[in-house]
Amino acid sequence: MTIKIQNKKLNLNKPTNIVLFANSNLDIEGLNKSTIHQLANSIKTSIKLNKNKIKDFFSFDVSSKEKVTIVKIKKEHISSNDNEKLGAKFLNFIQSNSLYENVFIDKNIKFNNQINKNFFNEFLSGLLIKSYTFDKYKTKKITNIFNINIHGNFKLDILQKNNKLKSLVDGVNFTKDLVSEPGNILHPDEYVKRIKKLKSFGLKVSILDKNKLKQLGMNALLGVGQGSIRGSYLAIIEWKGSSKQQQPLAFVGKGVCFDTGGISLKPAKFMEDMTYDMAGSAVVVGLMKTLALRKAKVNAVGVVGLVENMPDGNAQRPGDIVKSFSGKTIEILNTDAEGRLVLADALTYTEKKYKPKFIIDLATLTGAIIVSLGSEYAGLFSNDDKLSAELFKSGEKVGEKVWRMPLNDNYDKLIDSKKADMQNINYVGGAGSTTAAQFLQRFILNKTPWAHLDIAGMAFSKYGGALNSGGATGYGVRLLNQLIEDNYE
Known about the structure:
By secondary structure, the chain is of the alpha/beta class. It has helices at residues 40-49, 80-96, 119-130, 164-180, 188-196, 210-216, 219-225, 279-293, 339-354, 368-373, 385-398, 432-441, 477-487, and strands at residues 2-7, 16-22, 57-61, 66-72, 103-105, 145-150, 204-208, 233-240, 249-259, 299-309, 321-323, 329-331, 358-363, 378-382, 402-404, 422-423, 450-454, 460-461, 471-472.
């Protein structure tokens, strides 16, 4: 569905769907003085007759041309996430009832004081996020257009350039676009081209290609991509919105554009979903775009490792030993435990190069986290209680939840190797997500506050959720944006 928001007066001579917001008592203040005052009695009568039927939304005809839809705003609709969810539910309502008409808000109709002053902007934000579709490759596209015509005293910040909500919607949708692309289109070479385009938003973009990575000794990352005809890269995106002296906040993402498992080949069933294995990197890229669009007053750096994991005559073998950028050696027992190898070099490089205030990495890293948490929470692993608490609070606030999982030195014995400093998988069994995080922690060399988010259960959904309709969810952009806004600006 295409959403168009514009300022336009209501024309009662044309068929129109008038959408009115009522408080929890179903009162619409200012209705008798509004532009639609001649319909006030009919509206009040319909509300009175159907009061027990009205939950969140209710639609009825008041004339041969005018349909009215009531949006009930409850007292608990005070947080931004509540308001966004209401906007998303409203979109579901108009779609299921085929109400593809104009939303009209009259300047004399006021909100009750119980409502968050940003309610309407947040409501529209949720509606816009929920309306996302990826139909780029369909020859017959859905052409439903939903016009939101605003005539009134609402300050529609979401329409303004650099507005926080609009910037966030753009960043989330960009992440969804990247995750939704098939592997034959968004391979590492194409991904780099799209990241370079972010320069137009004021971001500094640097690309380390295969030759540069080899010179730096990033053999853990390079080993994953050596079976592919595509390049392997480390893409670095910088935003400077504060003083040059301020330590940057660092975000690192796993960008395995397609993951066959390599020589340790995955089963064919559902392998097509492995186009989503770059979702961690897409969150980082979408977040950096959001920060640039809204001119965030913070310094931040996003670092993403971009590879393709393919089975080829030159592919990495089980049993290979590689030397990482950190100098530590890794025995490759399973080539399908590749994301941690990409992140290992990216984490050490980010810490050494930028000396950040903290590092947060995101990856669709393990199936084990889905066994643990399903698709309700991302797994949070961290060496820092303060950062963990901030992430948890921000996640609750925007509805992108995290749950802290354990790290402990006792798990190290499960990834210690007899031939190298460590092995890339725990073959003893159990604690798959924790041992993966324990592996990553070894590449944080200078005790920088660090958090790892395993988003394997959150990056995409076959069934949809409160703010997405299935497919790529964009999970993580809103979470990290809220973290920054609440704690670091």
